Amino acid sequence: MWVSTSLKEAVEKLPGYEGLERIWAAIPQTRLVGGCVRDVLCGHNVHDLDLASPLPPEEAQQRLEAAGAKVIPTGLEHGTITAVINHRPYEVTTLRRDVSTDGRHAVVAWTDDWQEDAQRRDFTINALSLDQEGRLYDYFGGEEDLRAGRVRFVGRAAQRIEEDALRCLRFFRFFARYGQGTPDEEACQAITQLRERMTRLSIERVAMELLKILAGPQLLRTMKLMEQTGSLAVLLPHHAPLSALERLLACKDPAEPLHRLAVLYPPGGGDGQGFDDIGAHLKLSNDNRALLAAFARPEPSLAVTMDDDALRRVRFVQELPILLGRSWLIQARQLGRPDAEWSMLRHRLAEMAQPVFPLAGRDMMALGVKPGPEMGRWLKRVQQWWLEQGCRADGAACRAWLLAQLPPC
After folding, report:
1. What Rg value do the Cα atoms of the chain yield, rounded?
2. Predicted pLDDT of residue 106
3. What was the pLDDT predicted at 270?
4. Fewer CB atoms inside 10 A, N or C side of the chain?
5. Domain 1-148 has CATH 3.40.50.300
6. Which CATH class is domain 154-235?
7. DSSP 94-136
8. Beta strand 129-130 pairing with 31-33
């Protein structure tokens, strides 16, 4: 989609435009830059409003504070301050040029040259800027590339990757969202030649980009491109064949990145690389690693033929997000296509109230069971009976059953 109104009118409709007006009143030379310009051109929703300024960050901060904005020096060493206006943040970054780079981090100096600043950005579609009058500044053909669905590096692709190897991953992420037709040949050749540089990146940054790719559009096409360039073997070693992912995507899954990561690492899969291993490899959060581990466990079983009692039992044993995720993985493995019965099973699970076992230790004590190992054994027995009843028995029924089983005093 391409916006039909003028760019100025499109910007005036953005959420947070009132804050932009105040920033432009304080620093008229400021322009919108990067992703927000790209998304305005495409007619996508704009979430973050990032700006660039030819003023040094200290001077920009003084002007914005004089205009009544709260200013946070979020990254002064990189020239970035954050203006908070009506509780909304606006990042304002001073124009920069690279002095040196180590393959990930750059030493920068301030400049007032807009093209010099645009030249250090990764892709032509991210090097666009837009002033308050709606004038678009495009130094490298980014607007045409955006229309054509081309993701192309600014300048020589190999040089840009040598400056920052994370740009390989960003290429795949932007190709997934904006790419059409044949991917840029120079970019793919450079990534193939320099893919090992990605092993020097922080694994946390790699994981962040990978999860964004896994949650995004055109995933299978993008993953195949990553495989062709040798990037997938570097980033996700020992993964299952992409046919496993294709089966999940064919089920019309909900684009949850952990489901998609899980299907690439089935239990006991390639060379012993399992769910726990890939979670550790990517240094995922403890919660995400626990979720992957839960997906891998074969029990409790899950099938479309289960009645409500059986579903209540599995709802008691496992949390709903785990059960829903496992349902997609099982459907992909068994069918590899959309299925009304699996959809209905997920609906039933989601609509079902979480079962709560109605007895606790105080109930046992009231019935004369002494605290300690004996109480634990009786609690397990009555809970097992409750599960066999489909988690339907209330506290009174559980106490009655327990009284019938307890030996006479």
Report:
1. 28
2. 64
3. 46
4. C
5. no
6. mainly alpha
7. E-EEEEEE-BS-EEEEE-S-HHHHHHTSSBGGGS-EE-TT--E
8. antiparallel
Domains 1-148 and 154-235 alike in fold = no
d(CA 401, CA 409): 16
Q: Residues of the chain whose pLDDT is less than 50?
A: 270-273
Nearest to 229 by CA among 265, 258, 186: 186
Report pLDDT for 298: 87
Cis peptide leading into residue 300 (ω within 30°): yes
The reported pLDDT for the residue numbered 105 is 62
CB-based contacts of 67, cutoff 8 Å, min separation 6: 22, 23, 25, 26
**Interior CA angle at 380 toward 379 and 382, to 5°?**
65
- For 167-213, write each residue's pLDDT tens digit: 999 999 999 999 999 999 999 999 999 999 999 999 999 999 999 99
What 8-state DSSP symbol labels residue 153? B
Predicted local distance difference test score (pLDDT) of residue 75: 81
- How far apart, in whole angstroms, are the C-alpha atoms of residue 387 and residue 379? 12
Report domain extents, the chain.
1-148, 154-235, 237-355, 361-405
3-state helix, strand, coil in the chain (%, to 5): 55, 10, 35
